[in-house]
# Entry
Amino acid sequence: MSAQSFSVVTNLSSLYAQQNLYTSNSGLNKTIGRISSGYRVVDAGDDAAGLAISNRLGADVYALDQAYRNANDGSGIIQIADGALSKVTDLLNRAVTLAEQSASGTIGNSERQTIDVEYNQIKNEIDRIFDSVNFKGTKLFSTSAVKMEIFVGDTTIQSTITLSVGGAASTASLGLSSALTTAAGAKTALGEIRDAIGSVSRWRGVLGAQQNRLTNSIAIIQNQATNLRGAQSIIKDANMAEEMVNMTKYQILMQSGMSALSQANASSQMVLSLFQ
# Structure
């Protein structure tokens, strides 16, 4: 039966204890880092492939967040144009009342002159609206339609929505040329106003179709961004319950490792008893 050897030069028990203690301490530090940051992948060494995928997903999320804002900006342009046309419709409806009143034989020419003054003010206001409505300084109704490419893609897909908003418009282009100073003129004006209301309604219908498309696009973008965030979370975020268990494990290992190291170092002192 071989005898137990003792050495004061190389304490293997101490070396093993130190190695295990280092491993436990490294694990504890990494676990604390995950708990404090909330991320499973803190640096590339944790999961190089996962970090690369997570960063790619994160870039797409940022792109989609901006795409969401882009689509909302496009929606805002349409709302500006539609709001102006809604007011024009209100003014035209008032013009219908005036023309209907002027066409009646129950009023005289002097009263028609007064009605015509208000009708001209309505037309002036319609022209003012068409001339002044703008988006960031770009007038929407003074020249040809404003065309805009709304980018709603991400880092991979080049996706755009083309908007056509506004266009050259005035009371003249709407055909409002008759006066309300006579009953015959008022009857003619009624037809002109009816046609103008129809033109504005068709215009608003086109804007509404574009608005619906943008609304649907915004919903899709939000859904896509949410799904990407979920995929990124699975890869990058820490499982807090699991990490708390790991922290407890490493704390116990650290305590037992320190005790083992102390015992291993103390064993070398036993050699001194041989000299007594």
User: Anything to note?
Assistant: The longest strand covers residues 146-151. The chain has five helices and four strands. The mean pLDDT is 85. The CA atoms of residues 146 and 165 lie 5 Å apart.
